[in-house]
Amino acid sequence: MTIAVFKSYPLENDLEMAALILAGLPAVVLRRVGAFLGLRPAMVGSIVNINQKTLERRLKAHARLKPDESERVARLMRIISLATAVLESEEHAREWLKRPLRELGGQTPLQVAATEPGAREVERVLGRIEHGIFA
């Protein structure tokens, strides 16, 4: 399920990811996420609730994110990887993640995935797509 841009992160191994998250993911991972989505790092920061000035400081200093920030970024990476696997294309995943969906109350998957319960709902929608079940 892990896509090339996130290959250095064991997204499918919760125990290993937990250790990485506690240590803090490098802030530069937001650049990778942004590059994949076609968004500036600041926009990705707003999706995962990291203040723009804080993000800029961390990127400039090559610093690590705090564990709570890392957890939110890892959640987004997991959703991106799952969408890519289910939709069988990075381009389709990118488009789908940014498209408002009726199933998500008119919000985009990226907006809804900003919280853990929202991310679980995005995963459920992807599961329905994967199994050919449409609402």
Number of strands: 0
- The average pLDDT value, as a whole number, equals 94
Instruction: Give the fraction of residues assigned to helices.
Output: 55-70%
Please give the alpha-carbon distance between the first and last residues. Answer: 25 Å
Q: Describe the sheet with the most strands.
A: none
Counted up, domains total 1
Poorly predicted regions: none
By helix and strand content, what is the structural category? mainly alpha
Oligomerization category of the chains in this entry:
single chain
Backbone CA Rg: 14 Å
Shape: globular
The tally of helices reads 8
Helix-strand sequence = HHHHHHHH
What does this structure look like?
- With 135 residues, the protein is mainly alpha-helical.
- The protein is globular and about 45 Å long.
- The protein contains eight helices and no strands.
- The mean pLDDT is 94.
- The chain has one domain.
Q: What is the topological layout?
A:
Blueprint: H1 14-23, H2 29-37, H3 41-47, H4 52-60, H5 67-87, H6 90-98, H7 109-112, H8 116-130
Helix pairs in contact: 1-5, 2-3, 5-6, 5-8
Compact overview of the structure:
The chain has helices at 14-23, 29-37, 41-47, 52-60, 67-87, 90-98, 109-112, 116-130. It is mainly α and 135 residues long.
Relevant terms:
135 residues, 62% helix
